[in-house]
Amino acid sequence: MKVTFYGHACFMLEVNGKKLLFDPFIRMNPLAAHIDVDSLTADYILLSHGHGDHVADAKEIADRTGATLISNHEVVTWFQNLGVANVWGMNIGGKMKFDFGTVHMVNAIHSSSMPDGSYGGNPGGFIIEAGGKVVYYAGDTALHKDMELIGLHHRPDIAILPIGDNYTMGVEDSLLCCNMIRCNKVIGVHYNTFPPIEIDTDNAKRQYEIENKELILMEIGESKDL
Ligand code: NI
Ligand code: MN
C-alpha cells in the first residue's frame, strides 16, 4: 500500500491496483500549488464530511476520471444532484466491501455542511482494510470515546489523524487517540494550512517520541510505502 500526501487532509492510498483519493482540497490550498490536479487520477474519492476544505476538488476530479464518490448519504446525494455520475452512500457504523477492500464508516465528532450551506449529514471517518493492512483516517474530529471501539475491533496499522487543533484534535489529544485505537504510528494532517491550525511541528514530533510513538509529517507531494 502506498500513500501520497496532497496537503491539508488530502491524500491518496494505492492498494490492490486501485487509487483512493481522500478529501481533495488542492486548487484552493496555496501550499499545494505545485500539485498538478489535472494529472491526478482516482478510482474512488472518499469524503469524510461536506466542508469545503475536504470536498473542494471532488466534483472536478470525479467528473474527469469517473471515480466513485464514497461518503455519507447526504454528501453523495448533494454531488449526485450536481451531476456526479458514480456515488456510493454509506453511514456511520456501516461497512462495505469494494473491489480493493473493505471500508468501514466510523463516528467523528465535528460538523458537516456543504459548500452552499445545505445539510451535509454527520461527519465521519474511515477504516480501510486492504492489502493486508488496516488504515484509520479519522477525518475532522474531536477526541471521543468511540475511538476505543476502533482499538477493540480494528487495531489499525497506521492512523491518519488531524493534529492542528482549533477545529479538530490537537497533538495532545491525538496521543490519547493513539492509546484508544492501539496504534503508535500516525500520519499527521489538518495542520499549518491556515493560521488557526499552525503548530510547532518539532515539538509535536518530540511529544510523540516521549511516548514511544511515531509522528510522520509528509511533504506535500511526497509518497511513502506503508
Ligand atoms: Ni471540517
Ligand atoms: Mn477541515
Structural features:
226 residues, alpha/beta, 7-stranded mixed beta sheet, 14 strands, 22% helix, 28% strand, binds nickel (II) ion, binds manganese (II) ion
Write a structural description.
The protein is an alpha/beta fold and 226 residues long. Helices cover 22% and strands 28% of the residues. The chain contains 6 helices and 14 strands. It has helices at 52-55, 58-65, 73-81, 147-153, 171-181, 201-210; strands at 2-5, 11-15, 18-22, 44-46, 68-72, 87-90, 95-97, 102-107, 124-130, 133-137, 158-162, 185-189, 214-216, 223-225. Strands 6-5-4-3-2-1-14 form a 7-stranded mixed β-sheet, with helices on one face. A 7-stranded mixed β-sheet has the order 7-8-9-10-11-12-13. Helix 5 (171-181) links the parallel strand 11 and strand 12 (185-189). Helix 4 runs parallel beside helix 5. The radius of gyration is 16 Å and the shape is globular. The N and C termini lie close together (5 Å). Bound molecules: nickel (II) ion and manganese (II) ion. Nickel (II) ion is lined by residues 49, 51, 110, 140.
Number of strands: 14
Low-confidence stretches: none
Characterize the main sheet: 7 strands, mixed
Helix/strand class = alpha/beta
Terminal-residue CA separation: 5 Å
- Quickly count the helices: 6
Order of adjacent strands in the largest pleated sheet: 6-5-4-3-2-1-14
Quote the beta fraction.
25-35%
> What sort of overall outline do the alpha carbons produce when their principal axes are compared?
globular
State the assembly state of the protein chains. single chain
Radius of gyration: 16 Å
Q: H/E order of the elements?
A: EEEEHHEHEEEEEHEHEHEE
Mean pLDDT over the full residue set: 98
Helix amount, in percent? 10-25%
List bound small molecules: nickel (II) ion, manganese (II) ion
